[in-house]
Amino acid sequence: MQLLGAFNLYIIVLDFPAQTAANVQFGLLGLATVISNGNAMIVNNKVEDPALDIARELANGLSNSYRVKVIDDDSRVVTTPEVPNIISLYSEYDYILDVRTLSWSSIYYPSDWDNYRVSYHVHARLIDQEKGNVIAEEVCNNMPEYEDTGKAPSYAELEKGDALKRELARSVEYCVEHIRNLAKLSNTTNANTVKVEEITPTETKTL
């Protein structure tokens, strides 16, 4: 069985800017506050990087479609996203699923400064370790919207954590389907992306 190395753990967790209408008025000083307050939301509520959940879901889908063995190896940490670096870290795996958060943040609605949207941007790719190339790749950018902005979370609700986790979970669900469908990471994959015959019984590493 082929070995899919699925979740890369990136050593750097990106800042989470939590923008408010008041912060905009103070330029760079306001930006520093935005980042500091947003990062406090993440730390205080123990919010996990959504890329990990996306990687797990994509890896499970690959396992079900191609009968690959998924190994969640958290013993190594990725410092830079260059393909040669990732391959050198996970050289014993046949395929490596690399999922990395590009940005995440919260911002008020322009028409409703009391309620907020949470934005999430992620990059995913499947790397063939032996050939040293990317065989499937996709980016997802999502910001769940509410037609009735009064139903969106307030800043205080984001600070408490549950609303923040809920909004990020919505993006995880959306991006898993988006990436899976557009990168064709399923048993309907065509010859231009991941071939079924390429992923035959082995193991995969998830990043």
What share of residues is helical? 25-40%
Structure classification? alpha/beta
Please write the string of helix (H) and strand (E) elements: EEHHEEHEEEHHE
Share of β-strand residues: 25-35%
Principal-axis shape: elongated
Cα-atom Rg, whole angstroms?
19 Å
Q: Helix count, per DSSP?
A: 5
Distance between the termini: 19 Å
Please mark out the parts with pLDDT under 50 across 5 or more consecutive residues, or reply none: 188-203
Largest sheet: 6 strands, mixed
Number of strands: 8
User: Mean pLDDT score, rounded?
Assistant: 84
Describe this structure in words.
It is a single chain. The protein has 207 residues and is of the alpha/beta class. It is 33% helix and 29% strand. It has five helices and eight strands; from the N terminus they run ββααββαβββααβ. The protein has helices spanning 27-44, 50-66, 83-89, 155-160, 162-182, and strands spanning 2-6, 9-10, 69-71, 77-78, 95-109, 112-128, 133-142, 202-206. Strands 1, 3, 5, 6, 7 and 8 form a six-stranded mixed β-sheet that branches. A hairpin with a 2-residue loop joins β5 and β6 (112-128). The longest helix is centred in the C-terminal third of the chain and has 21 residues, at 162-182. Residues 188-203 have low confidence and may be disordered.
How do the helices and strands line up, and which of them pair or pack?
Layout lengths: L1 E5 L2 E2 L16 H18 L5 H17 L2 E3 L5 E2 L4 H7 L5 E15 L2 E17 L4 E10 L12 H6 L1 H21 L19 E5 L1
Parallel strand pairs: 1-5, 1-8, 2-4, 3-8, 5-8
Antiparallel strand pairs: 5-6, 6-7
Helix pairs in contact: 2-5
